[in-house]
Amino acid sequence: MASRTKIKEILGTEKSDYEATVKGWVRTFRNNQFIALSDGSTIKTFQVVIDRDNTPEEVIKKISTGAAISATGKVVTSQGGGQKVEMQAESIVVLGVADPEKYPLQPKKHSLEFLREIAHLRFRTNTFGAIFRIRHSVAFAIHKFFNDRGFVYLHTPIITGSDAEGAGEMFQVTTLDLKESPRGEDGEVDFKKDFFNKATNLTVSGQLEAELGALALSDVYTFGPTFRAENSNTSRHLAEFWMIEPEMAFADLNDDMDLAEDLLKYVINYCLENHGDDLEFLEERLITEEKQKPQNERSEMTLRDKLKFCVDNDFQRLTYTEAIEILLRSKPNKKKKFQYVIEEWGADLQSEHERFLVEKHFKKPVILTDYPKEIKAFYMRMNEDGKTVRAMDILFPGIGEIVGGSQREERLDVLKERMAAFDIPEHEMEWFLDTRRFGTCEHAGFGLGFERLVLFITGMGNIRDVIPFPRYPGSAEF
């Protein structure tokens, strides 16, 4: 069997007049002669020209949109416009047919809603090919960033007995018969008869376990799936998503902010340098889509300009208190245009408030720090004022919160007080408290929502379109 050359490799050089074999899926077949072939290695298609007179009729009949073929021939300088080189095919083998009466991805525009219904095929479209090539590069760049800085990649458990966020919105894991669960004398389910001898759930975060690693290895990071049983049918929420969670020993909140900003800039820049064609396509797609919107709702910058802007500018840093003062004085708040009007200090900021700060007020990414302790998790370090914690959130245009982090509470007595305030039993968290008993030190970390970052880089509007098989209320297909 002839070795296969990927289309990206052929189109990436000026070379011509050589023999090659390409394999891929037919996008279009014109005049029974010109095949636009895609193999997923690039957003561009490669033109394969067949010899109509010497290609069997039964082969030509099988070449249709969606069919998989192998073509062998000479790569030559193209005679037509639109491509520098093309293949003059000497042999065509149809590897898999696609009945044009049934194949749902014919050469026409399809809505994103329709494509979500056939998520097993949407990879074959230009839009989703671009998205998932970029998603791959975002993941690669994240691993490279941390590896180059000496971080250790730590795998934290997917099944866990703890609730890192204290939110309680978890998927339970059990081997018990749901119809006949064993009950104790108090009528409650007896989890001692379950597989793990206790109640367990799918993880909402790998952070607590990552802290254990950091307090021995200094710098670690996790990159894995997390789960939230939150009944949110929004364009920014998923029930299953991926998180990047670094933890650093001997680090404070400023170190945490610096690391997060450096990571985001590094990953965005990596995509700009390595995905020019994909980003150009997604940018044009976004411009076309926004032509349907009123002028005031359109993006002020093109997709690539927005990405470059984030790389080239320092993120704006301010405290939660300063942000509340800005929001209280803002026109949307005074005129009650916000859905959630800011009344006083202590309000939990919503996406509309975050996006106002980023998109209207500062017009750049924002890092907010020092939130009220009541609206943040128990493990965040208490400030000297007794009212706020050393937390930080990074807010991005079009997305809102993309990173949430903090300096962790390393003082045993204060951590116990915070756990009591959150009704978290100490006996369930002795392993976590041990890190404060034995060789404690200041440490910090954050969580970065992987899909939200991909959403930002691709310019897509719905998070369900940047993960291969989205999980959300009422949907667990494939």
Order of helices and strands: HEEEHEEHHEEEEHEEHHHEHHHEEEHHEH
Number of strands: 16
* Biggest sheet descriptor: 8 strands, mixed
End-to-end Cα distance, whole Å, is: 33 Å
Rounded radius of gyration (Å)? 27 Å
Describe this structure in words.
The chain is of the alpha+beta class. It contains 14 helices and 16 strands. The strands form 3 sheets. The chain has an 8-stranded mixed sheet, sandwiched between helices. The protein has a 5-stranded mixed beta barrel with strand order 1-2-3-5-4. β1 and β2 form a beta hairpin. α4 crosses α6 and α6 packs antiparallel against α8. The longest helix is centred in the first third of the chain and has 23 residues. The two termini are 33 Å apart. The model has no long low-confidence stretch (mean pLDDT 92).
Helix and strand arrangement:
Layout: H1 7-11, E1 18-30, E2 34-38, E3 46-49, H2 57-62, E4 68-77, E5 85-96, H3 112-117, H4 126-148, E6 152-153, E7 159-160, E8 172-173, E9 200-202, H5 207-217, E10 219-227, E11 240-249, H6 253-274, H7 276-290, H8 303-312, E12 316-319, H9 320-329, H10 331-334, H11 351-362, E13 366-372, E14 388-396, E15 400-407, H12 412-421, H13 430-437, E16 443-449, H14 450-458
Brief descriptors of the model:
single chain; 478 residues; alpha+beta; eight-stranded mixed β-sheet; five-stranded mixed barrel; 14 helices; globular
